[in-house]
Amino acid sequence: MRVGIGYDVHKLVEGRKLILGGVHIEYDKGLLGHSDADVLIHAIMDSMLGALALGDIGKHFPDNDVKYKGISSMKLLRKVNELIHDRGYRVNNIDSIIVAQEPKIAPYIEEMRSNISSILNIPVDDISIKATTTERLGFEGRKEGISAHSICTLCKK
Ligand SMILES: Nc1ccn([C@@H]2O[C@H](COP(=O)(O)O)[C@@H](O)[C@H]2O)c(=O)n1
Ligand SMILES: C[C@@]1(CO)OP(=O)(O)OP(=O)(O)OC[C@H]1O
């Protein structure tokens, strides 16, 4: 069994779509990034890579490579899953948390779990996604950005 952690932050700006866990969430701002800036999926990918000491997403998908401009992070998740499988491992379980003052994430969590489950080909019960505010403290609390944390375990296939 291997364990990895992941953390990511993206800035909230006007004129971008808000994509979290592969779900488009109606909001007046979206996250800024080279890709679709899906901060939850980025944290999850880093936890998967970390579990096998494979570096981070910036190493595998450089943010100066035009190939990744505007790319769906779900496509990157599929690639990270292939890397894990190529090394003889599969995801055992994921626990994650989205830190956002707004918008309300709870109504979208089941769709996010389902999206991730179908990419990783593991049961939704092995994927946990939670959300919290910071009671208006810090950059998330000021609605300047959204962060996400993830921990995952991998087991041998
Ligand atoms: N962006 C968010 C933040 C929180 N939630 C849900 O609300 C609950 C209460 O949040 P607190 O930060 O006040 O503890 C939390 O447990 C989540 O279920 C949310 O949906 N979206
Ligand atoms: C996802 C990548 C893809 O180029 O770009 P960004 O959307 O900017 O996201 P970041 O969390 O900065 O990670 C770097 C890159 O891997």
UniProtKB/TrEMBL annotation:
Binding positions for a divalent metal cation per the UniProt entry: 8, 10, 42
Cofactor notes: Binds 1 divalent metal cation per subunit.
UniProt entry tagged with the keyword Magnesium: no
GO molecular function: 2-C-methyl-D-erythritol 2,4-cyclodiphosphate synthase activity; metal ion binding
Pathway(s) annotated for this protein in UniProt: Isoprenoid biosynthesis; isopentenyl diphosphate biosynthesis via DXP pathway; isopentenyl diphosphate from 1-deoxy-D-xylulose 5-phosphate: step 4/6
Binding site for 4-CDP-2-C-methyl-D-erythritol 2-phosphate: 8-10, 34-35, 56-58, 61-65, 132-135, 139, 142
Lyase as UniProt keyword: yes
Family membership: Belongs to the IspF family.
Role this protein plays: Involved in the biosynthesis of isopentenyl diphosphate (IPP) and dimethylallyl diphosphate (DMAPP), two major building blocks of isoprenoid compounds. Catalyzes the conversion of 4-diphosphocytidyl-2-C-methyl-D-erythritol 2-phosphate (CDP-ME2P) to 2-C-methyl-D-erythritol 2,4-cyclodiphosphate (ME-CPP) with a corresponding release of cytidine 5-monophosphate (CMP).
Name of the protein in its database record: 2-C-methyl-D-erythritol 2,4-cyclodiphosphate synthase
Name of the gene encoding the protein in the UniProt record: ispF
